[in-house]
Task: inverse folding
């Protein structure tokens, strides 16, 4: 609920202000270029920060017959106003050491005046300034709510800059760029709010008035050399904003120094300080805000502001893309659950099961039936329900999908008040040992409920097969009399964005081992890496197979075990060099080789070794890495692994390669190797190292249980803590 509140707040703020923020960002980008342009050419002289007023003013007095004012801007350009020996008026950039004229100040162009007015007030005068100030405040709230969402997404402030799983382009870069440009965006927002508040006189500020006692003519001291004035000796031009010059010889006139932190009235004859007044804190913050908001004091900061403004536009685009994508996946209901006769609950990890359930839901509504489509975690008492349909996939080793984790407890908690006809439809793959395992658990739990009447026995569907789904539809419609579409194409899920890949090489299986290695070439040189996933569709339908990628010499290398009747493995083994297939690479950023850690341990069994071979090959920075693998016995394919790892060890891309053979050789499992090196694993995690697991889920559970014992006994922390900290990552199946 908490994350929903912040997410909706973040969205509501963005929607309500996106037009004004977009206008302010576009004009801000243009004005950033003006700030850069104003620094080119540069009129700052070398060694500017060391020049004192005592060094500069006498030289300028010799060059110009009369000086009225000197100004020093944020770019350290010195402008002089006065007259030359011919009586001509001067307004120019000068060298403060010599008085040489360097150039003439340029007026702001009409274009930039127009952009500035649009940026400040939208041409609406004071009303426009109010809206721009409000927009800055809303941008600040958007940034703050975004920070909270990132903290919640990353499971804590300490993990704020840890890796982000890339689900798709807009989501990934919305988070990543939001984190790295957080400070500039906050500065833009905060300074914009402050300048608006100052503009509307929210903070009162008294004008500085210097009260100077005017001496009698008889008390006027003789003129001393200004190079000897103590205040001029101790004041640098770099700390000065402006100097107002007095009329020479007039005892009522004095030098008025406007420094960065105060104003000083200085006697023009002997340099004594007549009056001194510090600027208020409000004035200091206002000047600082102007510098930070406009980038006028630094080319680098002006460029940073331009980049931040461009990214604000990207945040608007990516934010709405995320919202639209999320809304497309939302369940829309015409009726409430409390009034529906048909309750359909769809348990899905990636949305594919929801598509099947949604197709049934829409057809029921078309048939004028009162239907409700929800998630299993929404299970409650349904007072008007006559039919309950539960569609669910299985995740891992018989585990529920994320949106179904509370279903079994809810079934026990909420007893229906009337008899309801039930039907459970399980989705899974025969390639996994716990085929439709969670669906079977749900069916068993419902069978114990006195209110539940089984309409159709548990129906399982392999690989999202439309034909097998149609078989359930026919059975269910025969029992209920509700006519539904029985055309397989109606339920087929089309695949898009597939890329062509060419088979370069494939090893043969042997009697001792049914594992083979296949190498594919793709033109996507820099857009994938070891640990990413390759999705292929062997039957050219909705059924998909995923394989963990090893990137070897810019090619994709897969290690595959040929399963009798296996859809994916038989398809890949049937390919010959030169054959072309189509597939999609899925970025798996959470399982990439870490680049900034002291050491990495990679643990695999079976074909899970594939991505680790690629990671070792790509470890050009020679980060300390160790590979632990478990197999049944040595085979020709494993001998190839040994040859590859030997090369990596010689190149220092891999430090050690340890093998456990369960049926021969050392007669042990990979867990035994971990127990043997318990001190090493505990120390590695203590110093910030990372452990990566790839292989079967059974291996993952055994390894994590072994590590848990080690970390608790030696480090005082359980394995869950290290997983939360990103030091134990897995990609198991």
Result:
């Amino acid at each position: 609920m908490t994350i929903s509140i912040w997410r909706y707040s973040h969205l509501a703020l963005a929607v309500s202000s996106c037009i004004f923020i977009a206008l302010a960002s576009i004009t801000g980008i243009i004005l950033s270029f003006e700030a850069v342009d104003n620094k080119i050419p540069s009129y700052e002289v070398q060694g500017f920060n060391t020049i004192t007023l005592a060094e500069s003013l006498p030289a300028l007095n010799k060059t110009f017959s009369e000086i009225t004012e000197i100004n020093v801007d944020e770019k350290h350009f010195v402008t002089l106003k006065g007259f030359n020996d011919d009586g001509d008026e001067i307004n120019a950039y000068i060298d403060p050491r010599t008085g040489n004229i360097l150039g003439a100040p340029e007026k702001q162009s009409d274009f930039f005046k127009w952009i500035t007015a649009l940026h400040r007030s939208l041409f609406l005068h004071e009303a426009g300034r109010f809206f721009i100030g409000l927009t800055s405040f809303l941008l600040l709230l958007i940034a703050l709510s975004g920070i909270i969402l990132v903290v919640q997404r990353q499971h804590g402030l300490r993990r704020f800059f840890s890796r982000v799983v890339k689900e798709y382009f807009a989501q990934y870069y919305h988070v990543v760029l939001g984190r790295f440009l957080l400070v500039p965006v906050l500065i833009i927002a905060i300074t914009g709010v402050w300048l608006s508040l100052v503009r509307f006189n929210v903070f009162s500020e008294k004008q500085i008035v210097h009260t100077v006692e005017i001496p009698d003519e008889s008390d006027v001291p003789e003129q001393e050399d200004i190079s000897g004035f103590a205040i001029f000796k101790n004041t640098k031009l770099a700390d000065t904003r402006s100097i107002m010059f007095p009329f020479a010889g007039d005892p009522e006139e004095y030098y008025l120094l406007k420094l960065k932190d105060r104003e000083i009235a200085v006697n023009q004859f002997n340099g004594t300080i007549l009056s001194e007044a510090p600027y208020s804190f409000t004035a200091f913050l206002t000047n600082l805000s102007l510098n930070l908001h406009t980038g006028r004091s630094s080319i680098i900061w002006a460029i940073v502001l331009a980049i931040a403004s461009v990214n604000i536009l990207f945040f608007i685009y990516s934010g709405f893309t995320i919202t639209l994508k999320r809304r497309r996946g939302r369940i829309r209901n015409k009726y409430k659950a409390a009034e529906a006769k048909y309750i359909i609950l769809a348990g899905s990890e990636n949305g594919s099961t929801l598509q099947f359930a949604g197709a049934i839901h829409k057809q029921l509504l078309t048939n004028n039936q009162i239907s409700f489509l929800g998630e299993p975690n929404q299970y409650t008492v349904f007072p008007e329900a006559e039919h309950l349909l539960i569609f669910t996939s299985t995740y891992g080793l018989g585990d529920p999908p994320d949106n179904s984790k509370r279903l079994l407890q809810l079934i026990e908690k909420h007893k229906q008040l009337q008899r309801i006809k039930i039907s459970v439809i399980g989705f899974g793959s025969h390639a996994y040992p716990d085929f439709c395992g969670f669906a079977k658990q749900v069916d068993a739990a419902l069978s114990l409920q006195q209110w539940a009447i089984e309409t159709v026995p548990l129906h399982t569907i392999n690989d999202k097969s439309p034909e097998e789904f149609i078989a359930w539809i026919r059975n269910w419609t025969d029992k209920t009399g509700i006519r539904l579409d029985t055309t397989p194409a109606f339920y087929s899920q089309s695949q898009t964005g597939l890329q062509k890949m060419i088979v370069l090489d494939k090893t043969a299986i042997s009697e001792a081992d049914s594992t083979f290695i296949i190498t594919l070439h793709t033109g996507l040189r820099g857009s994938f890496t070891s640990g990413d996933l390759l999705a292929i569709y062997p039957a050219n339908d909705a059924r998909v197979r995923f394989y963990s990628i090893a990137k070897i010499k810019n090619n994709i290398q897969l290690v595959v075990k040929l399963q009798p009747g296996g859809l994916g493995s038989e398809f890949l083994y049937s390919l010959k060099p030169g054959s072309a297939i189509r597939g999609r690479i899925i970025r798996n950023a959470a399982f990439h080789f870490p680049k900034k850690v002291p050491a990495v341990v990679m643990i695999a069994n079976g074909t899970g070794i594939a991505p680790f071979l690629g990671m070792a090959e790509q470890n050009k920075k020679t980060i300390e890495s160790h590979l632990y693998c478990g197999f049944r016995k040595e085979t020709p394919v494993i001998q190839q692994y040994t040859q590859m790892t030997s090369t990596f060890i010689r190149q220092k891309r891999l430090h050690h390669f340890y093998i456990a053979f369960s049926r021969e050789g050392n007669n042990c499992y990979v867990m035994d190797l971990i127990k043997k090196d318990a001190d090493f694993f505990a120390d590695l995690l203590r110093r910030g190292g990372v452990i990566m697991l790839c292989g079967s889920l059974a291996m993952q559970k055994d390894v994590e249980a072994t590590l848990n014992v080690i970390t608790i006994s030696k480090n005082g922390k359980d394995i869950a803590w290290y997983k939360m900290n990103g030091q134990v990552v897995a990609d198991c199946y």
Notes: The chain has a mean pLDDT of 86. The chain has 21 helices and 25 strands. The longest strand covers residues 452-462.
